[in-house]
Automatic annotation (TrEMBL), chains A, B:
GO terms for molecular function: kinase activity. InterPro entries: P-loop_NTPase. It comes from Vescimonas fastidiosa. Gene3D superfamilies: P-loop containing nucleotide triphosphate hydrolases. The keyword Transferase applies. This is Cytidylate kinase.
C-alpha cells in the first residue's frame, strides 16, 4: 500500500498553506512547505529565495519566454524541477504527509495514494489576506495577485501539462473565502 | 435574509443528481430536477423531451451553429432560457432547496444565498454508471459522455459566460468517482 498523501495546490493568498498546516496538525502528520524548500536548497545549491520563486512561478517580464527556450540545453528551472521531483517523491515515500504547492499532485500521481486538493478564493479575500500576511508593496495587492496567478498557472502548465484550477484535476476544490479556513480544515480531515 | 439554496452542476454520469437528491433528503428540503423540467414544460408549451435536452445542451450536428445565430430574433433556446430563468428564481424564492443543473448557479447568483457545487468523475466511473442507469446505446458510453460534456459546456458558456468546470466558479467541487457518492453527501450536508 502506497503512503497516503494530501497535496494542496492553491491560489496565492487563499490560505492554502495555513489549511495544509492545520490539517496536518489535526492528523498528526508532517506538512512540507518551507521545510521542503530548505531541503531542496541544500540539494541544489541554489539560494533559498530563488528556489522559492522559480520552483513554482514562471519568470516574468524580460525573461518571460525563458520557459519555452531550450536552445542551450536544460535551464536552471529544469534542473530545479528535477530536484523538486526527487525531493517530493522521497518525502512521500517516507510516510503520510501534507505537501503544499510545487506541483506535488502531478509528481506523485503514480507514486502515492494522493488526495488532491485545490484551494482558491475571490480577489477581495486574497487581497486582504496578503496585505495582512506579507505587508504593503508598491504594486497594489490586486496586481500582485494577478501576476502571481498568471505565473503559477504558466509554470504548472509547462511542467505538468495540467490545467491549473480546473476542477477535474482535483478530488476536491474549496473556496476558502466563502467557506472559511477552519471549515476547509473540517472538510479535509475526515477524507484522509 | 435570502433563502439558502444548493446548486449542483455536474458532468453527465457523475451521480450529481443522486447526490442532490440524497442531500435534500437528509436536509428535509425539496430537490428540483425532473420536477423543475415538468414545471417549465407547463409554462412553455414545449414538449418535455425538448425541454430536457435544449435547456442544458447546445444543439449537436447540423444545428450546432444555432446558438450563435440570432439573425431571425430569439431562438426557441432563448425563449426556453428566459422561462428557465423565471422558474428557477421562483423556486429559490419559495424556500430552501437543492437545484440540480440548468445553470441555476448563474441564475441565482444575486438572488439567493447559494452553495455552488460541481460534481465530476473520470470517464471510467461515468461510463459504467450511464450504462447501468440508462442502458446500452449504439454509441459507446465514452462517445456519449464526450458529446454530452462538450454540449453542456458550450451551453453554459453561451448563456452564462462562465467557464464550466472551472474550480473558481464553485464553492466546492467533488470527484464523486474517487470519493464515492455517499462521502460527497456527507461533505455537503453540514455545509448547508
Amino acid at each position: 500500500m502506497k503512503n497516503r498523501v494530501i497535496t494542496i495546490s492553491r491560489e496565492f493568498g487563499s490560505g492554502g498553506r495555513t489549511i495544509g498546516r492545520k490539517v496536518a496538525e489535526r492528523l498528526g502528520i508532517p506538512c512540507y512547505d518551507s521545510e521542503l524548500i530548505q531541503e531542496m536548497e541544500k540539494q541544489t545549491g541554489f539560494a533559498a529565495d530563488y528556489v522559492k520563486e522559480a520552483g513554482e512561478y514562471a519568470p516574468g517580464g524580460f525573461f518571460s519566454s525563458a520557459l519555452s527556450t531550450r536552445m542551450f540545453g536544460p535551464t536552471n528551472e529544469d534542473i530545479l524541477w528535477s530536484h523538486q521531483y526527487k525531493v517530493i517523491t522521497a518525502l512521500a515515500e517516507k510516510g503520510p504527509c501534507v505537501i503544499v504547492g510545487r506541483c506535488a499532485d502531478y509528481i506523485l500521481q503514480d507514486k502515492a495514494d494522493c488526495l488532491k486538493v485545490f484551494i482558491h478564493a475571490d480577489m477581495k479575500f486574497r487581497a486582504e489576506r496578503i496585505v495582512k500576511e506579507y505587508g504593503e508593496r508598491d504594486q497594489s495587492p490586486e496586481e500582485r495577485l494577478k501576476d502571481k496567478d498568471k505565473r503559477r498557472a504558466a509554470y504548472h502548465r509547462f511542467y505538468t501539462d495540467m490545467k491549473w484550477g480546473h476542477a477535474q484535476n482535483y478530488h476536491i476544490t474549496l473556496d476558502s473565502g466563502a467557506l472559511g479556513i477552519d471549515k476547509c480544515v473540517d472538510i479535509l480531515v475526515p477524507l484522509f
